Amino acid sequence: MRTATQWFELYGESHQNPRNKTIHWLAIPVIVVVTLGLVQAIPHPFGGGAEAALNWASVAVGLSTAFYFRLSWTIGLGMLVIGASAVAINAAIAAAGLPLATVCITAFVLAWVAQFIGHKIEGKKPSFFQDLQFLLIGPAWLLQFVYQRAGVPVETWHHALRSEG
Prior knowledge:
The protein is an all-alpha fold. The protein contains seven helices and no strands.
């Protein structure tokens, strides 16, 4: 299994152009929120609508967070906070009476168009064409830059031991 740093280096290979990076800083957070919003809009048996705390999106956050915690405890914790925040944003959209699925589909399409424009500028295909796991790596790749700035380590001791052995 690759370490977080290895994933980020691979992802970064197709994200060198400053304009492409800027587009990713804008589009990836939108894609995270609205993808979870689309999942959140699916009727569920947990009681309540899309604004309920337990819904398919919160289940998806839990499952994806397991992937992130395998990479790094700090990345896992950060992505859990991001995922929970996205679910809360979508719950607020639904509670305000806005059509959650329509809002999310519109933003999803616009953000992905922007991503593909960024990759056209970059001159390289999106990483997920190589490996679908890169769809999960993109948001964590941005988070690691925030962590670098804040002095938060990305790799944790148990991951360093695993990569040595």
